[in-house]
Amino acid sequence: MYQRTPQTQAHYDQWRKDHPNEEGCFLCMREPIINWGEYWKIVTNDFPYDAIASKSDLLVPLRHFAGRRDMNAQESAELSGLLEKLETGSLPDYNAIVENFDTGRTQKNHYHIHVVAMK
Of the candidates 105, 97, 28, which has an alpha carbon nearest to the alpha carbon of residue 56? Predict the structure, then answer.
């Protein structure tokens, strides 16, 4: 089962073909939908997981780093707080997360988590 509809997947595949060596980080440049504390933001996902989710955005650290192991204590604490809010339903727009690991990420150099509302 695919996470994206065929149309969104085609759009995503074309974008990757057109931007094989993208300069800069598209996640750093994204304006937030929600600022989360001092260290995180939620941004719109241009290539949503629309086959499985009615809402599909990205949770992105403001500081550019590659993986969980690179987080500092403050970033980790804020992430834990956000995940707790998701678990308890205190952030009602989302009800699940999807975390792709290094082999599945489009943007391997900027850690991010997909925050979604499952269908």
Answer: 97
Alpha-carbon distance of 81 to 86, in angstroms, equals: 9
Q: Tens of pLDDT along 16-68?
A: 788 776 666 888 888 999 898 899 999 999 989 999 999 999 999 999 998 88
DSSP letter for each residue of 33-92 = SEEETTTEEEEE-SS--TTTEEEEEEEEESS--SSGGG--HHHHHHHHHHHHHHHHTSST
Residue 18: its H or E element: helix 6-18
**Angle value at C-alpha 39, between 103 and 75, nearest 5 degrees:** 65
d(CA 61, CA 36): 9
